[in-house]
Amino acid sequence: MTRARFDPLLSLVGLLALLLAWWTATRLGVFPRQVLAPPESVWRAFVQGAGSGELGAHILASLGRLGTGYAAGALVGAAFGLAMALSREFEAYTSGLFHAVRQVPTIAFIPMLVLVFGVEETFKIVVVAKASFYPVALAVFTGIRGISAKYLDVAAVYTLSLAQRLRLLMLPAALPPVLTGLRLGLSRAWVALVAAELLVADEGIGQMMEMGRQMFRLDIVLMGVVVIGTIGFLLDHGFKLLERRLTKGMSA
């Protein structure tokens, strides 16, 4: 069975259809402008925000929080998942709580995190770190545990140390699921960050949208939606390209 190739031109069909439906709905007055701003108004808001530098400042603030929180959450998650995979005792003590807490959406922890950390930058970084921690930890755990016992037997025959087994066997073998977990963690972190900024933030994409809502500027709110979707797509697509290159380099 042949595998369908991704065609960027075909992927634009859905986007153009959505834009056409949006434009038609606003022209026909299906929804009032207070509910659905027309595309041209959103475009003007984008040009104005980009020209003044305000939009760029909000984007940089959000991406800065995302980078810091994601790096922290991914590193701790990778270490935690590795510890669970290598130690049955550690897994026995932590797996119950781990699997119970990971079922709870990150947004549900926001009120408690606000009480603990306040509404400053630490709170938002912790939200991002929590959102990225669980996908990465689970991916590392399942990736390491999924290694065939035959490979582990070979490592035992050659009396490889733990560091050598990790570097030469475990991490390369577990790389594909780990990369998938990192990619999923990045997507979840981005969604959680925007939700946190919508509630409490001095700057950021979410805060820009909330200010637009308070001022009844639906063009700014919809512009924020478009920007969030675009950035999320670029992050995911960029990580997908990196994942493909790394896995191809291993198989070559």
TrEMBL record:
Q: Tell me one GO biological process term.
A: transmembrane transport
GO CC entries: plasma membrane
Query: Which keywords fit this entry according to its UniProt record?
Result: Cell membrane, Membrane, Transmembrane, Transmembrane helix, Transport
**Main location as per UniProt:** membrane
Query: Which residues span the membrane?
Result: 70-88, 100-119, 125-147, 215-235
Entry's localization field: Cell membrane
Q: Where is the ABC transmembrane type-1 domain?
A: 59-239
Task: Write out the similarity annotation.
Answer: Belongs to the binding-protein-dependent transport system permease family.
Q: What is this protein called?
A: Sulfonate transport system permease protein
Q: Which organism is it from?
A: Sphingomonas jatrophae
